[in-house]
Fold this sequence. Notes:
The chain is of the alpha+beta class.
Amino acid sequence: MSRIGKKPIAVPGGVKVEIKGKQVQVSGPKTKSPLSWTLPGAINATLEDDGKRITVERTADLKQTRALHGLSRALIANMVFGAHAGYQKRLLIFGTGYSCKLQGQFLHLNCGFMGRGTKEKPQFEIPVPEGINVTVETPAARGNSEPAKLLVDGPDKQLVGQFCAEVRSIRPPEPYLGKGIRYEDEKVTRKAGKAFASGG
């Protein structure tokens, strides 16, 4: 048995789970529309204890099926947690003049690209996907020590992570001054700048 796959998933209060054939749908306090996952062919999920517990089983013992067993259980558990409590990531934007602003369903970013953007138009305009929330906590960075801050949250773990990764990829942190976009818990390995010997 898969060590992950065989663990039952507890369904907290306020979360509703529906299983119709291979389709699993989860809704809760954090969802506007249900989260869904289609089970692979050899994997089945069952609601037990009046909807308070989900068990995931497989009908074959092939290597790929064992892997899908654990994967399916993990994805359903993520959906249950996301519908109940949600996921969130905080991004820090370091750099003099770097800033972020939310304009409708678009995130506006200015992060040090010379010749791109104007005072009226941001350097980057990123659409915010439906299903996640973006909150600008600190709109502008102050030097390389006080960053702009951005909070991304939502019930879908994959969607939150993907959006944050796309934003970070615009300006990953550089190792000398630490400028760029990073996760709150990310450690950036710093390098010493080049040393120039004075002429004799």
